[in-house]
């Protein structure tokens, strides 16, 4: 694993986010050839590294982790392919649980990483997100006693009768045999970037919130539900449930309650952001032949942070948050973009301020597509999505209490904040 920490931070308990790369549970050389992108399938994948750096700048201990890989995507039958990938997922989930146990043991002993053992997030990109989702929600041996997870002769893909399957240790057990037994492997949230869950029956009322961003046109993992196909040869494998179906079921079981009321207005479900027009891992960039996509990919990194960071702040109950290069909230905001090497000074105005009526005029030098109103503590008050515009007259909710607020606008490249005073 590679660990990214806030520079100069002295806090003794810091939230931790574990991000796992994509790669279809295949060795990097095979995964890279299959996706036509090199490198892919390692803990130094570009998008994962970029996200780790940005989360560390926000006060997290960010970890880029890998796991055991290997299965045969060219097996001759769908059942054999399904067995192979389910066993590969199983091993990766064991590795994910082992990492959580390792971190909790460190917190209880040497405390090298100074993590908060009660604020652990796991997730990642595509297959890496599968790992986080199943660490969170695959908790009972009987969940695998399903015809979907058996060969035609009834042989289970994973032997749920093996010793230790009641969350004990050992190579075939839920916890795996990678050491540090006795420390919990539970996590508090999942960041799901284009992943899926093997079956919605896994979802019970565990109370573990999931925050998801998913390319609606992803050809490898369906946004709704469907049969996932191999990255090598496009052979059908097994039905999975992508982010839309996942959040629909999470919401029904009460697992998104931690996102309410602040993010109840998320559409189509709390904590879910569908990337319209995007496919697989739009926040990643790869070989020199595709480095022209780097600036575009960095904008998708910005979107992940814009959407995920405040929701993780909410569900983890963080007392404070560190923001990189936070601008002074004045009449003109000078902003350093997250696209490396570029600076933009934008004339972002909110007026009148103070205002005596719940109507605010917003103007910016570049078009924006969303406006939001927040308390100074970061709680969402109102939000409105727009057609691209450089000016907007916003009628705010009736009964808005007097006080100081933050007005946020979202442009194609940036998220900007401006302080606004309401004194009716």
Throw out a few tags for this protein.
424 residues; alpha/beta; Rossmann fold; Immunoglobulin-like; 2 domains; seven-stranded mixed β-sheet; five-stranded antiparallel β-sheet; 6 helices; 16 strands; globular
List the helices and strands and how they pair.
Layout: E1 2-4, E2 14-20, H1 28-35, H2 46-57, E3 61-65, H3 78-108, E4 115-125, H4 127-137, E5 189-193, E6 210-215, E7 225-229, E8 236-241, H5 243-252, E9 272-275, H6 294-316, E10 333-336, E11 343-346, E12 349-351, E13 359-375, E14 380-395, E15 403-410, E16 415-422
Parallel strand pairs: 2-3, 2-4, 4-5, 5-6, 6-9
Antiparallel strand pairs: 1-3, 7-8, 10-11, 12-13, 13-14, 13-15, 15-16
Structure description:
This protein is of the alpha/beta class and 424 residues long. The protein has 2 domains: 2-316, Rossmann fold (3-Layer(aba) Sandwich), CATH 3.40.50.1820; 333-422, Immunoglobulin-like. It is 22% helix and 26% strand. The chain is built from 6 helices and 16 strands. The chain has helices spanning 28-35, 46-57, 78-108, 127-137, 243-252, 294-316, and strands at residues 2-4, 14-20, 61-65, 115-125, 189-193, 210-215, 225-229, 236-241, 272-275, 333-336, 343-346, 349-351, 359-375, 380-395, 403-410, 415-422. A 7-stranded mixed sheet has the order 1-3-2-4-5-6-9, with helices on both faces. Strands 12, 13, 14, 15 and 16 form a 5-stranded antiparallel sheet that branches. It has a two-stranded antiparallel sheet with strand order 7-8. The longest helix is centred in the N-terminal third of the chain and has 31 residues, at 78-108. The N and C termini lie far apart (54 Å). The model is unreliable at 323-345 (pLDDT under 50).
């Amino acid at each position: 694993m590679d660990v990214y920490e806030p520079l100069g931070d002295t806090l003794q308990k810091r939230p931790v986010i574990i991000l796992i790369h994509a790669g279809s549970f295949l060795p990097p050389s095979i995964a890279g050839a299959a996706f036509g992108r090199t490198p892919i399938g390692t803990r130094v994948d570009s998008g994962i590294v970029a996200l780790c750096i940005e989360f560390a700048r926000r006060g997290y201990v960010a970890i880029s982790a890998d796991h055991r890989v290997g299965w045969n995507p060219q097996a001759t039958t769908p059942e054999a392919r399904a067995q192979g990938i389910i066993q590969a997922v199983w091993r990766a989930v064991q590795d994910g649980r082992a990492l959580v146990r390792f971190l909790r043991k460190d917190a209880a002993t040497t405390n090298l990483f100074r993590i908060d053992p009660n604020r652990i997030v796991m997730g990642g990109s595509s297959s890496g997100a599968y790992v986080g989702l199943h660490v969170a929600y695959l908790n009972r041996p009987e969940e695998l006693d399903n015809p979907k997870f058996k060969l035609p002769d009834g042989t289970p893909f994973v032997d749920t009768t093996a010793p230790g399957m009641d969350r004990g240790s050992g190579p075939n057990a839920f916890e795996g045999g990678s050491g540090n037994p006795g420390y919990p492997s539970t996590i508090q949230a999942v960041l799901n970037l284009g992943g899926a869950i093997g079956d919605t029956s896994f979802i019970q009322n565990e109370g573990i919130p999931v925050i998801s961003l998913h390319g609606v046109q992803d050809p490898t993992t369906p946004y709704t539900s469907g049969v996932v196909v191999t990255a090598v040869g496009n052979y059908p494998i097994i039905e999975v449930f992508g982010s839309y179906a996942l959040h629909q079921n999470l919401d029904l079981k009460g697992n998104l309650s931690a996102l309410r009321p602040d993010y109840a207005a998320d559409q189509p479900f709390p904590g879910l952001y569908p990337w319209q027009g995007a496919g697989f891992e739009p926040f990643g960039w790869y070989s020199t032949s595709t480095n022209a996509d780097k600036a575009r990919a960095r904008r998708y990194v910005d979107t992940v942070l814009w959407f995920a960071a405040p929701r993780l702040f909410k569900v983890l109950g963080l007392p404070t948050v560190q923001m990189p290069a936070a601008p002074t909230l004045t009449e003109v905001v000078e902003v350093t973009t997250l696209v490396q090497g570029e600076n933009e000074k934008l004339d972002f105005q909110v007026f009148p301020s103070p205002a005596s009526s719940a109507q605010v005029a917003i103007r910016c030098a570049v078009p924006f597509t969303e406006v939001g109103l927040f308390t100074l503590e970061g709680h969402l008050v109102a939000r409105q999505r727009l057609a691209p515009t450089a000016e907007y007259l916003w009628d705010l909710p009736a009964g808005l209490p007097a006080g100081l607020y933050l007005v946020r606008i979202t442009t194609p490249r940036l998220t900007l904040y401006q302080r606004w005073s309401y004194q009716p």
